[in-house]
Amino acid sequence: MSGAGHPEAIDLHEQGLRARRGGDAAEAERCFREAFEKGHAAAAHDLAGLLLDGGDKAGAVEWYRRGAEQGVPESAFEVGYVEETRGDSKEAEHWYRRAAEGGHAGGYLNLGAILRGRGSLDEAKHCFLRAWELESDAKAASNLGAIYDDGGKGDLVAAAEWYGRAADLGNAIAAYNLGFVWRDREDPEKSIEAWRRAAELQHPNAANAIANVLLSQQNVNEAVTWLRRAVLEVGNEKAAHKLSDIYANSGRHREARFWAEFLDGPKFYSPEFEAFASEVAAASIHQQDVFNDTFEQNYVEWDPAKATLTLDGRALRGLTVLGSFSNLSQTWLWTWDNPSWEQDLPALAGLRTIREFGERHQIPELMKGHLDFSRFNHPAGGATTMALAAATLIGAKGVSFVTVNEGKGRLVLATDDPSVPTARFDRLTVPRLLMQAAEVWPHEQLRVVRGFMNHHGFEVDESPAVIVVESADGHRVTVRCPIERAKEHPEVAAILGRENARIVEHSPARVQGRRPDDDDPHRLAVLFDLDDRIITVSSGAETTAGG
């Protein structure tokens, strides 16, 4: 049996192809079987593919083998692949050779890989060249580059040429190796350029390689940027530890701890996220309160194609599907990184704003698609807090949480529909809002207050803390300290470092704001202790002295 066989066999094969395209698997199988019996060898290959699609792997292998035995190169390749996965390299080589003899580029490529693995480099080179000539295969070019490279000891000019061809076709390994070729040729600029390309192609070590070069040049800031990319984009463990060391050596211990724990699941947010989220916290809590008071949310529907959210029968525009939280794995998945969602849906458009903000301000939580909250004290609450903060970036009027997958997870939906009431400044709720936000962000209470005042248009004025420090000999020094980290003021710290020195009295720092409003002017004052924590909040109408 060879070729297409009798005209009747050709006709049966064509009928089988039409039936398969039309979804009639039973008719396609009948036609392929009859076509093969009448001498159409390639029908065996198509029948094997049909059986494989239907889940009959054993049947598929049997028919691939029949096709291979009748000289079908594609079938010979498939049999070779099966034998290779079984660990029988001798049989795999035999069938890959049969495929290659039939002009199959994949046969040449995989045969070359086997030959290269056992050291038959000349024959392997020939196979890779043939694969390249037949299909311009990126893997073939990358393998040729590696053979010429020979670990930096070979023909580096030829290696660069072949690695470059493969990299141009999107081969990350070739782009990464090209960086080392240029390094060995003492061209650091081209080396970094190649690694940049490899990083864009998601090679797991490329960004870290760039960072190493930058660190050797004492360019720490740019190196940190690349190390963060290495961690966030490809989960490079070495980069995470290197980042942690850099921050620890510069005295930024919270950042150091965050990056040391990041890949295993951090126990707290990044300092960058805390700085952002704390500033919007009180206002976002207030807006969500208004949203929850407006809608009972007993009935929720959403249409991502129309970007609408229906709550209790009321349709709202401006839907953004932020992401989902898994109750099983305690992880968050931004919808931009969820393969189950079509990324061109209108309800996903707002995510670009969130992600771009994260990249611009280097906020890991708004850059990485999949986040592990399992080590947070309250994983679901941690994800919720993050989502509420992120929603402010798209002007959301509220966020709705929908249980999905039979309670295994929650989908988080935001809407910026202008018909939803906007939270207005209310002096009666201010103390509660600020204290509630400060409880969420205990290390950023100053930012909580500043952010809230700025959000509501206050003219802000800050008064420093005044600290009286007494040394052991009774000498007293009065220091006016910046409002943040007053006890870390150099002059205060120097005195407190002496034996028996102490703070004998202090007046608290104050952040106060005036909100000029013709109808209802307000003043707001917040006092802070020496650990930057809120002591009291006073809010009231502005009064004018009479004469």
TrEMBL record:
SUPFAM superfamilies, per database record: HCP-like
Show the Pfam families listed in the entry: DUF6882, Sel1, TPR_16
* Record's protein name: Sel1 repeat family protein
Q: Which domain of life is it from?
A: Bacteria
Q: Where is this region: Disordered?
A: 1-21
Q: Where is the composition biased (Basic and acidic residues)?
A: 8-21
Which SMART domains does this one have? Answer: SEL1, TPR
